[in-house]
Amino acid sequence: MEGRETVVVTGFGPFRQFLVNPSWTAAQGLKVFGLGEQIDVYIKEFAVHLGLARGSSVVILEQTGKNSGYRDRDVCGFCPESHCCLEGGPEKLDSVINMRAVSKEFRQAGVDVIYSRDAGRYLCDFAYYCSLCHGGRRAALIHVPSSGSLSSADRLVPLLQTLIRTMLDQLEDPSDSQSQ
Description:
Elements: E1 6-10, H1 22-33, E2 45-53, E3 59-62, E4 64-66, E5 92-94, H2 99-108, E6 113-116, H3 123-134, E7 139-145, H4 153-172
Parallel strand pairs: 1-2, 2-7, 3-6
Antiparallel strand pairs: 3-7, 4-5
């Protein structure tokens, strides 16, 4: 019997003027519609964080989580005194997923997906860095758009399903990925 996979998808709560964060709505949609019958339980853990790209109309795949430079307070007024995720930790960590290759594949298919190495030094970046650090770099951060056609759940959820499956395929066969 073939093994099953576990994928953890997160979203965030209110963010500035967004009382209902589209990243949370998208995460809920993925929970309802799933990623396929074989994806749910233990062989590989792979955390997928969804964050909001304010002012963007494209999906942004983040390659790198940063450890320091956190200055903005969160919705509860908290900011780490050290302005970093993990004191003494590496300055940056890259996902084992080659986000450049994934974004290129989707752009060639005409989908508005771009690659980034700067997740913004806010809650999304903080959570991503922590997942990369504690999860053997087996994590992804996808910034979802706040405007445009891809910001609607009916378009975004199927795209996220396909993106995450593509990332899982890359985990299964690392030779599929090109150098970063």
